[in-house]
Amino acid sequence: MIYFCLKAHGLIVNTFLIRSNLKTIVFKLNQFPHLSETFILSQIITAINSGYNVKLLVTEVLSFEASKQTELLEKYNIADKIVVEDYDIPKNKIHRFLKWGYLLIKNINNLNYILRFYKHQNSFSLTWLFQLVFYKNHAKVSIFHIQYGTNKSPVDVLKKIDFIKASLIVSFHGHDAFFPINGFIPNNGYYDCLFASANAIVANTPYLAKIIEGLGCPSKILKTIPVGVDTSFFIPKKVPKKVPRRLNIITVGRLSLEKGHVYALEVIKVLKNKGLDMHFKIIGEGHERARLEHYILENNLSNYVTLEGGKSQTEIRELLWCSDLFLFTSVALEDDRRETQGIATIEAAACGLPAVVFDSGGVKYTIKDNETGYIVPEFDVDAMLSKVERFILNRDLLFTMGNQAVSFVRENYSHEVINKKWQELYERLS
Known about the structure:
Layout: E1 2-8, E2 11-18, E3 24-32, H1 38-49, E4 53-61, H2 70-75, E5 82-84, H3 93-106, H4 111-119, H5 127-136, E6 143-147, H6 155-160, E7 167-171, H7 192-197, E8 200-203, H8 206-214, E9 222-224, E10 247-252, H9 261-273, E11 278-283, H10 289-298, E12 305-309, H11 313-321, E13 325-328, H12 343-350, E14 355-359, E15 373-377, H13 381-393, H14 396-412, H15 415-429
Parallel strand pairs: 3-4, 3-6, 4-5, 6-7, 7-8, 8-9, 10-11, 10-13, 11-12, 13-14, 14-15
Antiparallel strand pairs: 1-2
Helix pairs in contact: 1-15, 9-13, 12-14
C-alpha cells in the first residue's frame, strides 16, 4: 500500500490508499459527454482521485471535440475508460436466435439466474439473455453508479436477483422523478425494483429527495448530496471591482421554458421604462430563443439585453466577472416539475455575485436569503423587480452580499466539501 497526495480538479486528496488490486466503480450513463452535465464529470473525477479504477458504461458516445470540458476529458484520459453498452445482438432474426441458443448453452451454469432474470420481465425477448451475458463481464465491479433513474435497466433487476454483487448507487437529477417521464413513462411501479435493490438513492437537494421519497423510495437509502462547483476555477475577479455606474445583470441557463427567462425580461423592461442604467446578458442556447428575440424586439430592449448564446466554462466565468448581479427565474412547468438545484446560481456566487431568485424547487438552497441575495415568490415579477432596484439604489449591497456569497459557496458547495461526501459514500459501499 502506498500513501499519496494528489492535487487535481480543485481538490487535494491526502493520505488515500492505493491498493494493488484497485476497486472498480462503473458509471452507467446514457449519453456522454453531455454539454450541460458537468457535475457528472466531476463525480467521475472524484472517484479517480479517490484511487478507484473507473469505467464509464455509455449507451451513446457524443463528440469529445464539441464538449465544453475538453481539457478535463483529456487530462483524466476519460476516452480510455469508456465501454459502449452494446449487447452485440445480430440484426438477422435467424442469426439472433442461433446466437441466443449458443449463449444459453455456454452459460448453462447460470441457468438459475437466467430463469430468474426472465421471470422479472413483462414479456419474453431474446434480448434479455444478451444483456445478462454482457453484464457477466462486470462481475468484479465494486460499485455501479447510475446517473439518472431512467438508466436503471437492467442493473436493478440483475442486482435484485443477486447476479450483480456490486453495490448500487443511483443519482436522480430532476426530470427522472416526475411522471410521466419524458412524456410517456407512467408511474406503474416503474422504480419499485430499483428502490428494492439499490444501496443508495442520491438527490441533490431536500426538495428532490422529498419527491423521490413520495415515489416509494425508503428513507433509509435516500441520501442528499448537492452538486458542487470548482472553487479553484469559479473565483472572484482578482482585480477588485469598482462601484458600477451601470448595473450589469446576468443569467446562465439553456433557453427553455422552465428557465423562465421571459420573467427576467419583464423585470428589465420595467427598469428600462424607469430610466435606470443597466444591461442584461443571457448565457445559453435553446428552443426558446426565437420567442425571447421577439419579446426583446417588441419591447425595444435591444440596447438593454444581449443573448450571448452557449459558452464554455471559461467564457462563462469571464462574463460573470464582468457582471454585478445574477438573476435566476426558473419556474414550474405544467407537470409541476421544477429546478432541483440551480448550479448556475452557485457558480455565480463563487465569483462574488449576489443573486435574486424565484423560490422554485431546490433553488432556495443555493443562496442564504438576505445574506447572499434574495429569494422571492415564484412568478412574482414585482417582488423580483423590487429586490433588483434595491441593488441599484444601494450599490454597497453588491459587495457585501457578493463577499458573503463567496464564503457561503466555499463552505457548502466547493468540490472539496462535496467530493468528501462522495468519497465517504463510495468507501462505505465498496
